[in-house]
Amino acid sequence: MTYPSVYLHKGKEESIARFHPWVFSGAIARKDDGIDEGDCVSVYSYDGRLLGNGHYQVGSIAVRLLTFDDTALDAAFFTSRLTEAWRLREAAGLVRDDNTAFRLVHGEGDFLPGLVVDVYGSTAVVQAHSPGMHFAREIVAEALVALNGAGIENVFYKSETTLPFKAHLDPVNRYLVGGFTTDVAVENGLQFHVDWLKGQKTGFFVDQRDNRALVEKYARGRNVLNMFCYTGGFSVYAMRGGAEQVHSVDSSTKAVRLTRQNVELNFGETERHQAFDEDAFKFLDTIEPEAYDLIILDPPAFAKHKKALRNALVGYRRLNAKAFEKIAKGGILFTFSCSQAVNREQFRLAVFSAAAQARRRVRILHQLTQPVDHPINIYHPEGEYLKGLVLYVE
Questions:
Q1: pLDDT tens for each residue of 316-359
Q2: Domain containing 54: what range?
Q3: Within this chain, do residues 58 and 83 fall inside the same structural domain, yes or no?
Q4: How far apart are CA 79 and CA 365, in angstroms?
Q5: How far apart are CA 152 and CA 175, in angstroms?
Q6: Residue 238 three-state SS
Q7: Nearby residues of 380 by Cβ (< 8 Å), 6 or more positions away
Q8: In terms of DSSP bridges, do strands 245-250 and 273-277 run parallel, antiparallel, or are they unpaired?
Q9: Most buried one in 53, 139, 269, 355, CB count within 10 A?
Q10: What are phi and psi for residue 14, nearest 5 degrees?
Q11: Packing angle between helix 344-358 and helix 309-326, nearest 10 degrees?
Q12: How far is 391 from 214, CA to CA, in rounded Å?
């Protein structure tokens, strides 16, 4: 397949030889004239050996490789990759009548760098994180609808906030195929309203599915506090698990409204649940000590890049220290970081420092990560972003 050519400096092909899919701008010695944002390119070593084909863009990561050979990046390519991704979800047991919400494509983890696809029933929500995937959106949509056995009828494109702003692509969130049918999806037998039109990410955080199920197992008879509740996923699972009382907190009025709707969708009107539109730190300051014996801390990413790492670690330490101060003896703390810039060891140290600051005896019950539909490409360790700890606090 003939694409415009990009040539690397000597020695810069070594990471690609280990199947890492990123080519950094500093590794490029020269390239053909006229290559634009999102173009398909072929990458060559300094001595002219073909290394693979991918999408070009302006920035630190200059090429995202989709193949390590001369495979054409056409409709047949996307159909093949999407079919492989679907088969993985089927093999993992995620495709069931009582589970219609899951991630179908997780970027590099599914060998499609720059692309995210979440499925909610008959609707697939597509996010492009690279100009190349933006330009391939129609091909992706057609391939999704054609997936054998998937039952995808609607494809919503949602990339207004995910594409690099310097690319000047001006994406519009819209249906590429079909239209709105229902916003209710099912996760492990529980129903959720999913706001892919205006909600965060694709509308629901499917990456916490397994961890929500673990909260359910610990919830019976406990008073539960779900901080940064968003649409109330952890709260709904805790309710089904037999929690005595569940309180959901988020600074977003819209998120609190969706949480209430999701609780009512599954349990009707109930006095076991209350939701509060309030800042997390202020709320933790005002509650009585030992009011809760199960606390969930699932904040948004405190660090989206390495420059924010130091402040992020301070934030995690401060937040967890507040929880350790307030949680009842014998309480269970679920605490998470979704910041890719914060590695597992750094997060763990921040939490341990918080425990020491609060002078609590703490034991680790579980070390958590992202689920099977958010696979990590073994050659791309940067794909590991979700970290969690389940702690027993004495």
A1: 999 999 999 999 999 999 999 998 889 999 999 999 999 999 99
A2: 5-67
A3: no
A4: 41
A5: 13
A6: helix
A7: 20, 21, 22, 108, 109
A8: parallel
A9: 53
A10: -65, -40
A11: 40
A12: 13
**Among 326, 325, 328, residue whose Cα is nearest residue 354:** 325
Task: Give, for 80, the enclosing helix (H) or strand (E).
Answer: helix 75-91
CA distance 339 to 276: 25
Residue 40 annotated in active site: no
Element containing residue 164 per DSSP (H, E): none
Residue-wise DSSP of 90-142: HHTT--BTTB-EEEEEEGGGGT-TTEEEEEETTEEEEEESSHHHHHTHHHHHH
263-304: pLDDT as tens digits:
999 999 999 999 999 999 999 999 999 999 999 999 988 766
308 and 174 together in one domain = no
Contact 344, 387 (CB under 8 A): yes
Pick the closest to residue 215 from 106, 335, 68 (CA basis): 335
* Through-space distance between the first and last CA atoms of the chain, rounded to whole angstroms: 63
- Please, what is the average pLDDT of the chain? 95
User: What does the alpha-carbon distance between residue 39 and residue 18 come to, in Å, rounded to a whole number?
Assistant: 24
Cα–Cα distance for residue pair 216/382, rounded to 1 Å = 30
Query: What 3 state SS string does 342-375 have?
Result: CCHHHHHHHHHHHHHHHCCCEEEEEEECCCCCCC
In a domain, 214, yes or no: yes
Give yes or no for a contact between 180 and 155, defined as CB atoms under 8 angstroms apart. no
Radius of gyration for the alpha carbons in the chain, expressed in angstroms and rounded: 22
Same domain, 62 and 137: no
How many domains does the structure of the chain reveal?
3
Candidate list 338, 354, 355, 362, residue with the active-site label: 338
**What's the CATH code of the domain at 14?**
2.30.130.10
Question: DSSP secondary structure string, 21-45?
Answer: -EEEGGGEEEE-TT--TT-EEEEE-
- The two tokens of residue 205 are 């955080």
Q: What is the pLDDT of residue 247?
A: 98
